[in-house]
Design a protein that fits this description.
Largest sheet: 7 strands, mixed
CATH architecture: 3-Layer(aba) Sandwich
CATH superfamily: Vaccinia Virus protein VP39
CATH topology: Rossmann fold
Number of strands: 7
Shape: globular
Number of domains: 1
Radius of gyration: 17 Å
């Protein structure tokens, strides 16, 4: 009985923590909608699909752009050894506070993704993971961030991003897709992940 009660308490605590982070995410969206870009955090299914798409060794350097409250971050850190490095750039001050409390071993930086070169040496990142709302960006910002990503990636490095299925044919989303095909010789798209709000899919890109 005590074991069951302990398990119930642990599950309740985990659900409470997830609920609290979701509320923080919504609050951050309401305060800074253009910076946050989504009204609800990624589901466990989408988070796992994104993390599982990332190819890196436990001692590599990983970059995360727009981590939100850390759904991807947690899964990525589970695969990194202490010698590995995770650098996350986030523009929501509320989310930065949450991330720094949750992940003290990672480098949580309040800065725009276009400035990633200030924090990661060129050609050293094995994988760049994006939680950014590319469909909300002006073309010039898309170009600047993509240029920074390509510069930071090591030879053979990988770029992983997700996009919402309902926005697939937005002009800005189409432009982002063309940008990926221009910059990366190999681009793959996952099937739609329906267990997310809203449904989404994952891009996997590899640099030469």
């Amino acid at each position: 009985m005590k074991t069951i009660e302990a398990a119930d308490t642990t599950d309740a605590s985990r659900r409470a923590g997830v609920g609290a982070r979701a509320r923080k995410f919504v609050q951050a969206f309401l305060r800074e909608p253009l910076k946050v870009g989504a009204i609800w955090p990624s589901s466990e299914t989408l988070s796992r699909a994104v993390a599982d798409s990332c190819e890196f060794a436990p001692t590599d350097t990983i970059v995360e752009l727009g981590p939100g409250t850390g759904n991807f971050t947690q899964l990525l850190l589970e695969r990194l050894e202490p010698r590995g490095r995770l650098v996350a750039l986030e523009l929501s001050t509320m989310n930065v506070e949450v991330l720094r409390r949750r992940f003290p071993r990672s480098e949580i930086i309040y800065d725009s993704a276009e400035h990633v070169a200030k924090h990661v040496r060129p050609h050293t990142a094995r994988c760049v993971v994006s939680g950014l709302a590319w469909g909300n960006m002006l073309p010039a910002m898309q170009d600047r961030i993509m240029a920074a990503i390509v510069t930071s990636l090591a030879p053979g490095g990988q770029f992983v991003a997700f996009a919402y299925s309902h926005a697939r044919y937005y002009p800005t989303t189409i432009r982002f897709r063309k940008l990926m095909f221009r910059e990366f010789p190999r681009v793959e798209t996952s099937p739609i992940i329906w267990r997310n709000l809203p449904p989404a899919y994952v891009y996997r890109c590899w640099r030469e």
